[in-house]
Structure formats: structure tokens, C-alpha cells
Amino acid sequence: MNYHRQTTKWETNMENLKSTINEQGKTVTQIIHFVNGVKRTYHGILSNSIKQGQFTKMKCKDGTMIMINDANVLCIEIFKES
Q1: How confident is the model over 50-69, as a mean pLDDT?
Q2: CATH for the stretch 9-80
Q3: Element at 9 (helix H, strand E)
Q4: Closest to 28 (Cα-Cα) out of 41, 45, 42, 11
């Protein structure tokens, strides 16, 4: 798939937190393991869009925003896409 889109105001105003996830590449796939045993896979996450707080927020290359409550997460697997 070819995802050509304009950079949003949200992306241009974000500070790059220099996360080690950025070392994996511009986009990544994450498998998030929750405390209740559920696993969710998210593709096309923009590495430089990840912001942490009570909820970790991230954007996908299709424009979707994901918010994860950190208290419910055991671990996250990260795989390089590009």
C-alpha cells in the first residue's frame, strides 16, 4: 500500500522523545500483551509519534490514533517495518 499524505499539525508540533523505538525505523508493528492475556497487533505505527503518559498515544500511517492504558500492559513486542 502506498500512504502519501500531508503531515498533520499534531505531527509537526510533536517533540521527538528520542525513544529507542525510533532506532527500529520510521514505522513499526507492535504486539501489545495485556494483563488479562489478550494480545493486540498494530501495524504502521509512526515511531516518532509515540507519546507517554498515563495513556501511551501513537499514530498509524493511515491516520488512526491509538491510546493504551499503561497499567494494563505486561509487555510490547516491536518489529521494524521500514
Answers
A1: 92
A2: 2.30.30.100
A3: helix 9-12
A4: 45
DSSP summary character for residue 11? H
Torsion sign across C-alpha atoms 48, 24, 45, 63: positive
DSSP string, 30-77: EEEEETTS-EEEEEEEEGGG-B-SSEEEEEBTTS-EEEEEGGGEEEEE
**In the chain, domain spans:** 9-80
Give the tens place of pLDDT for each residue, 27-42: 999 999 999 999 999 9
60, 66 Cβ separation under 8 angstroms: yes
Rounded CA-CA distance 39/41 in Å is: 7
> Three-state SS for 28?
strand
Instruction: Give the Cα-Cα-Cα angle 53, 9, 81 (nearest 5 degrees).
Output: 70
Task: Please indicate, yes or no, whether the overall pTM of this predicted structure exceeds 0.70.
Answer: yes
